[in-house]
Amino acid sequence: MPQFVEVRFKGNRRDFYEWHDSEPLREREAVLVETDRGVDLGHVGAIGQVAHTKCERCGSCGLAETARAGAPAGHEEAGEPGEVGDVVAASDEGDGALAPTPERAGGVRRVVRRASAADVRVADELRSAEEDVRRRIRERAVSHKLGMKVSDAEWQWDRKKLTVYFTAEKRVDFRNLVRDLASQFRTRIELRQIGVRDEAVRLDGIGRCGRRLCSASFLTEIRPIGLQIAKDQHLSLNPAQISGPCGRLLCCLRFEHEFYVQARKRFPKEGKIVQTSKGAEKVLSIDIFRELVALRGEDGTTRSVPLLELRDEVDHAAPAASPLAPPASTPPAREAPAARAAPATPAAGTPKDQGAQGTASPPRRRRRRGRRRPPPSP
Description:
This protein is α+β, with helices and mostly antiparallel strands. It folds into 3 domains: 3-196, no CATH class; 223-265, no CATH class; 273-317. It is 28% helix and 21% strand. A 5-stranded antiparallel sheet has the order 2-1-4-3-6. A 4-stranded mixed sheet has the order 5-9-8-7, sandwiched between helices. A hairpin with a 5-residue loop joins strand 1 (3-8) and strand 2. The longest helix is centred in the middle third of the chain and has 27 residues, at 117-143. The protein is extended. Residues 64-105, 320-330 and 348-358 have low confidence and may be disordered.
């Protein structure tokens, strides 16, 4: 049975492959894999069941459905889905026609072989030359007067394809730029538009906490983050304090949100009135890390009580039911409303009775509604 592996490339881009050799691959091992056009070099990120689980969580292609059943199928080469949407322009030998993202035509791709020391040396040389390539592409974009920011450039290992990642506020017509770059680098050019979060993932960096960005280090997927998550954690709603280097809300707000939700279930809600040993007190605030609850009594005094002590006070202050207490008086049953009296029958000889028994009055003549005829002329 082939070994199912996850292979990672530059900028946290990843894809899934099969290894058909008898000797299994190990994590962080350099391998050469097949692409839609040529061969690329990457490093094994996960193997076996871990790779299957990551493929299921990815869910960006049809491979996730078959991975749940343990039978891998095809997967897209594009890697992580973009926040704005992937816009790809493919150019081959100067052709600047727009083309969609290349998809896998057959089944799951295979790992060609293990990479040798010479293969890794070639990849390192390409990585060192990509900064100069990005600078040249940026100069060409400025000369074409395009409103785009070139974020990164990535060579394929066999130099048969050059992928350029950029960000833009609106759609950019870069067909002329693709033709220019294809004639300059003599290879296939792909321009891919990404979002600001994906740009932070590719470029990496240091967050406001002083550590490496979560999205570029251990987060396998970027989920949407709303302002309600910051409200649930009682954080400041100032965008300058809860935004990351990309200008969007911090990624840590998402994966820490579940901890705050579960921790707050152990505490009373803020603003609630609780009965303690000192009487009725109002919950002002809670500290889930120190497990303290701030209370304010009826006389205006405030105090901080540990959560366990507050629970004991609430349990002792609860009124216990006494066995000798007289039973509560049962409220009297509600009387049924009296029946309505039947309407009195009119006595004989009354005008109504006479009208009913006597001769019926002639019907009223209906008045015709219409336009009055004008008087005859004299």
